[in-house]
Amino acid sequence: MGKTAIEVTNLGKKYAIGNSINAYRTLRETISEKISINKKQPQTSEVLPDYIWALKDVSFKVNKGEVLGIIGRNGAGKSTLLKILSRVTEPTEGSVKICGRVGSLLEVGTGFHPELTGGENIYLNGAILGMKKNEIESKFDEIVSFAEVERFIDTPVKRYSSGMYLRLAFAVAAHLEPEILVVDEVLAVGDAEFQRKCLGKMSDVAKQGRTVLFVSHNMSAVLRLTNKTLVIDKGNLLLQAPTTKAVDYYLSRGLTQEGQRTWQPEETDQKSHFAPVSIRVLDKKGYVLETVRSTESFFIEVEYLVRKPIKGLRVGIYLITSRGEFVFTSFDTDDPEKFESYAIRKAGLYHSRVKVPANILNGGRYLVGINASSYRIKTYFHDEQALAFNVDPSGAPGTQWPESRLGPIRPAFKWEIKKIKNANK
Amino acid sequence: MGKKDKDKRSIIKPSHGWAALNLRDLWLYRELIFFMTWRDLKVRYKQTLLGASWAILQPFLTMIVFSIFFGTLAKVPSDGVPYPIFSYTALIPWTLFSKALQDASRSLVANRHMITKVYFPRMILPLSSVMAGLVDFLIAFVVLLGMMWYYKISPTVNVWVLPLFLLLALITAVGVGLWLSALNVLFRDINYVLPFLTQFWMYLTPVAYPSSMIPTEWQVIYALNPMTGVVEGFRWALLGTGQPPGIMTLVSSIAAVVLLISGMFYFRRMERLFADMV
């Protein structure tokens, strides 16, 4: 304990963009490039390809036995960092000192061959991940039972359901015993039960005193598993702090993915009296968010164009869980007074915004649907999957127990506990 | 713990120019070579009608075509043994070599999902593609034994050196395979070059004709093609034709080793680009 497991110093990774990364080079190009450089020499600045720094000046230290979270939006450089740490790709500058064997779960099932059976793939995949044959042999049964595929172990994996495939793949990787484990988003897939199992396995690994680097979009998983977290954006390390602080910073800075959708004019019916323009999820301060916190109120805003006056128009939203259950439906003219005052919606550009109070939604992913209609007359626009966003339950009632709660809502109820009678001795 | 730590400490930093061969890593991952070879074998003839008979059919049918056109019609000399067995003896190491070339040069691109996700010495991929061809070679070799029995030719006393010539073929295949696979990551032209390359190379190798047809003053240059040494060696050890190993074999061996070592260094130099370029 206390010893450094990973020390990253001024790490940078440059990627060429444009021609040289997309198109494969052909010999002709290389030869003609060489020739043209030789002919016209003072041209270097133009010849240089465009590049971007996927990672720049990143430095941090991880102690042995520490579980470090890494958060940032897509394309922030998290995966590049993990790829460098697991030696898949080389950095352009800087260095990493690593003490111990690194096992990576950059993607589960790497090297799985569809024609081979489950058992054969365990050996193959294990060897690719760096396990020795006898190591795999000794863990074989454990892997099979963790993956719950006992009956199908002699079946080619191409006949597996995607769930079985994934469970098997994760099981192999999870039984690797490196001193440093690098995990990227594996938990984003699989059903809730399996996710729980994976998280359990990961915290076991951490408890055994091994170092874990954990990249995830799942804030509650990061909060549960890690004590320190890095926030990365556009290749830069923005913050390195205790996880609660880092998650707060990440969520409040609006570093999450855009929780917004816009419709191009050509996507909508040109003849309709109603056309959606955009829909977004906003926090209290008006920042567009993809992940909102369960403990804070937020807004859902629909912007739309009314081309010709519409009688009795109501614009509303559905909230639907990722499993397709409706949580609620609400219209902007639910209130009888509003219904009266907007009896006819005149032409113009509008927005209808609804405030969703704090402590309503449980953690998870939700879909927002739009319905614009006049009751019993016409539905002008209907889209049950207009936008998706996440709710992060950290800090919600009951999060002291690290388990996921059933049900789409997670209200903060007032409970009363009263002793009625002393126990009889 | 303390002693273990020392072994496992490593530093990741940008490398420049020529890299060390890092054979230690290759040794640590030796089991992966075995598993990848085994995977290639398991999968190779899945969903084919004829299965492993393809390993025999390819050289065998070529032998028949050669026997008709070169042996019977063009009357190419065959060092005093029946033409079919003369050409088949050369065709089995040649098939091993040309298939190894094909599989190895595509191995990196074909396994790009592994290269971009997990670290392991990349050299394992072309290596195991070459190894997988060995099983086909052995199957085809059994047929050769059958043919020798049919033509009543018994192997010479020199047959014990045959494994050395097989090794020479493997060294050549790995050497060229390393070059081509690394080049293929950067330049997909290799895919188009390959069919021509194998065809030309076969004409440069005494597969369909004996090397005694080459004028003596050219023979040393001719032997720069390591496959010349392999094919001549096979015929000498099994059929007793041609020259015993001499200057030509030496030249071929040196050429093969040069190919292997240069291939390994080039591969290692390019390896760092694979994950980003493949």
Describe this structure as you would to a colleague.
The complex is a heterodimer of chains A (425) and B (278). Chain A is 25% helix and 34% strand. In chain A, helix 5 crosses helix 6 and helix 5 packs across helix 7 (162-174). The two termini of chain A are 48 Å apart. Mean pLDDT of chain A is 82; it is low at 39-47. Chain A is globular and about 75 Å long. Chain A has 11 helices and 20 strands. Chain A has a 6-stranded mixed beta sheet, with helices on both faces. Chain A has a 5-stranded mixed beta sheet with strand order 12-20-19-15-16, with no helix packed on it. Chain A has helices at residues 19-22, 27-39, 44-47, 78-85, 118-128, 133-147, 162-174, 192-207, 219-225, 243-252, 336-341, and strands at residues 4-16, 51-63, 67-71, 93-99, 102-105, 180-184, 211-215, 228-233, 236-242, 260-262, 274-283, 291-293, 298-306, 310-311, 313-321, 326-331, 344-345, 348-356, 364-374, 378-392. Chain A has 425 residues and is of the alpha/beta class. Chain A has 2 domains: 4-250, 3-Layer(aba) Sandwich (Rossmann fold); 260-392, Coagulation Factor XIII, Chain A, domain 1 (Distorted Sandwich), CATH 2.70.50.60. Chain B is mostly helical and 278 residues long. Chain B has one domain. In chain B, helix 7 (124-150) packs antiparallel against helix 8 and helix 8 runs antiparallel to helix 11. The longest helix of chain B has 31 residues, at 247-277. The two termini of chain B are 38 Å apart. Classes of the chains: A alpha/beta (425), B mainly alpha (278). Chain A binds chain B through residues 15, 21, 24-27, 30, 83-102, 104, 106-107, 110-111, 113, 115-116, 120, 123-124, 127-130, 132-133, 179, and chain B through 5, 8-15, 29, 31-32, 35-36, 38-39, 42-43, 46, 111, 113-120, 186-189, 272, 275-277.
